[in-house]
Amino acid sequence: MTEAIPFRGLLYDPEKVSMYDVTAPPYDIITGDMLQRLYDRGPYNIARVDCGMETSADGGSLTKYLLASECLRKWIEDGIIKFEDRAVYYLYETQYMSDNKMKTMRGIFAAVKLCAPGKGVFPHEMTHSKPKEDRFNLLRICRANTSPIFSLYDNPEMTTAELLGGVLATRPYIEFTDDDKIVHKCWIINDPMHIETIQNGLRGRDVFIADGHHRYETALKYQKLMQEGSGNSAAAYNYVLMLLVNMAEPGITIKPTHRLLLKLPPQPLDILKDDFDVTPLAHGADIIAAISGKPHTFGMLLRGGQFYTLAYKGQRPSGVLGIDVIILHEIIFKKLYNVSEFGYEMDVAKTIAKVEDEKGDLRYEAAFFLNPTRVEDIELVAREGLRMPPKSTYFYPKIPTGIVINYFDK
After folding, report:
1. CA neighbours within 13 Å on the CB side: how many for 376?
2. How far apart are CA 208 and CA 393, in angstroms?
3. 63 and 13, same structural domain?
């Protein structure tokens, strides 16, 4: 049975540091230039731990993982980060703009008991070996979950809404605005009755990984390694840091990631016409508006500037086979085009530019535009024990690293 328990989190002291200066985006979206900017914010930025540079600035020989461990140890000694007095939950809230609307999303930071995928915790996306190796080395040496896994659970009754509303009315422990004008807040929930209510409300609920598949698989690998030595079922390594967000929350946003192809087969439009209604669009048409809200419909851009909509006209597939990104990959890419390598881009303008670019290193011949994957589709795929293609979902906004850390050595 799924358990999401309170824990003694390791938190920055907001009286000693600015949370803007010490937090960072998730490791997998930090580029080299961004990493340097985060380093420049000061000596306590969490990026120095979560995705640090390969060597120290003074030319030392420590690996980045040993440097990360040293940072955590020294920050604890200096009181820059400190442990909460006892096991508690942490309420997180973010406010952001999406599609010209202000949205609010809330969740609970908790330590979730590890279990085999599909036995209470459900993944939905494929993973790659290189990021898992990096995350494993960091976890093994630092003995800490430095960044949370973003997960969903289903509680349509919103049983803790009233309790959390009372917490929201108080002053948050931390509050800051990031470079994208997104507001982040966090409260420490230390009232014993509140803790018990939240724990009972989360117990036994299925959890669906939204963002952080590599981190979950890494946590399982580390647990296996540690159990070979001691096998202590109560040890901290049997749990992993998660932000748990109720699917009933109105503030969840999923953005699509569009696909780019370097090569097309001959007569690429004719190949599609038995399975799709192929409709050319007028010059200057908004491709996203043309497909928005239309199930099983994709946008297509060919080199030369012509846009099309592709509406699937076969028998309406049900279940997993009816999810847009799976139709795109299984029918168009695999069955009709026989391609297996893609480029990815979220930004529509950049996607278009990559097809129209005549001078770039990669000369893409076509782009395919998707509607966002729905939350219910993620649950459907996960419960079936299947995996979507990589980059099928992009949850927005990303949860900052550094709000709370689950450090195993208290």
Report:
1. 4
2. 13
3. yes
Q: How far apart are CA 122 and CA 208, in angstroms?
A: 5
Instruction: Give yes or no: residues 241 and 280 share one domain.
Output: no
Beta carbons within 10 angstroms of residue 312's beta carbon: 21
* Domain-embedded: residue 76: yes
Question: Does residue 388 lie in a domain region?
Answer: no
User: What residue numbers bound the domain in which 195 lies?
Assistant: 4-253+396-407
Question: What would the pLDDT profile of 62-109 be if each residue is shown by its tens digit?
Answer: 688 999 999 999 999 999 999 999 999 999 999 999 988 999 999 999
Instruction: Name 153's bridge partners.
Output: 207, 246
What is the number of structural domains in the chain? 2
pLDDT in tens, 152-176: 998 877 778 888 889 999 999 999 9
Query: How many angstroms separate the CA atoms of 174 and 400, rounded?
Result: 13
The model's pTM is 0.90
Burial 244-268, CB ≥16 within 10 A → b, else e: bbbbebebbebbbbbbbbeebeeeb
